[in-house]
Amino acid sequence: MNEILNKLYVLANMSFGIVAAILALLFLFLSVPKSEVLSNYRTCRKYMVTAYFLMAVFSELESFMRNNLVSGGIDISLLFTLMNSSFQALLLPIALITLINTDYLKRRLIRIELLIVSSFTILMLATSLCKTSVLMPKIVFFSFIVYYLFQIGRGFWWIRSLRYLSETRMNNFFLGQESKHLLWVRKTSYLLFLLGIVSLLLEVFPYAIFTVVFMFSYASFYTFFAIKYINYVYVFNLVVPVCAKEKNIHTANSISFGDLEKEVDKWVESKRFTTSGITLTDLAIELKTNRTYLSLYVNTHKGANFNAWINYLRMNEAQCLINQRPFLSIVVISDLVGYTDSSSFGKQFVKYTGYTPLAWRKLNTIAEKPMMPKEEYVWGKQCC
Fold first, then answer.
1. Which of 138, 185, 232, 303 is the most buried (most CB within 10 A)?
2. Model-level pTM?
3. 110 and 176 in contact (C-beta within 8 Å)?
4. Domain 2-243 sits in CATH 3.40.50
5. Among the CATH numbers 3.90.180.10, 1.10.10.60, 3.20.20.140, 2.140.10.10, which is that of 257-363?
């Protein structure tokens, strides 16, 4: 039974090695417009090419060298698996983070990490193939496992940072569901973490049935990852404003917070927050300031991010319309306050009031109560 499982594993691993090589070539020759907004995407592609090429090489080496013991009684295929896992634990999280923020990880740090992994790889091969010592290969092997464990832990920390980058920054910029475009990045990060843990366990407990199941899961995940990455170029232009970094927070031409507050009050009174699809950049241009300075103002003076503040104003306006114009349908009210999707409007209404729009209409009360439970929120004037 184990022999059959081993043959199945080798066949699947060799097949995936070929697929990984094809995907690496596809990334390498993928046509990407030479636009500045796609610079993050092109940088990420370099890491993806390297990761998939190494994956292909190590997969083939592991398949050909399986069940061959070296010094210390270690299966050399386990060495190749560990080398591959370590490189992936470094390169793929970097690729994911690069899609969102190229400044998060410095190139010097990346070079040092690559040097450490490469040094472990060379040292492990040298001690394993040179049959002068039995103890040294084991020491290097388990030291490499300890370092790989560190990589997994650090990767989990990067995943937490990704959640901030993909959700908090998006919510401080957009009003709609644009953050969902980056949801796959976070999900992929969690899957990477899970695969890293399982790979580590299989290094210590290499049972045949589990390695076969893991191999098919591993191959499916990396194929899915490649497809998502290739398709990501089509939505990258939607999220790139969040990834871009403004150089100046407060320039000489920026208005003071006091003057900005007056302009914001005028903007609220004119109900331009009901404009569909408005973003932080749109409002910053309209108020003749930059988005970072405006975001700082909203966060400090309104006590919330841009998304929450605009949604509050819209919900307040929706309450007024529901109470004062009972002849209007909920769909029409949704459109009037700036939502293109009535279901999103309904979810936001429940979130801010605790009632569905229809239930609120049945109550037939004037919405004078605060929409948020915390008293420290300063949202702006009543809209109606």
1. 185
2. 0.67
3. no
4. no
5. 1.10.10.60
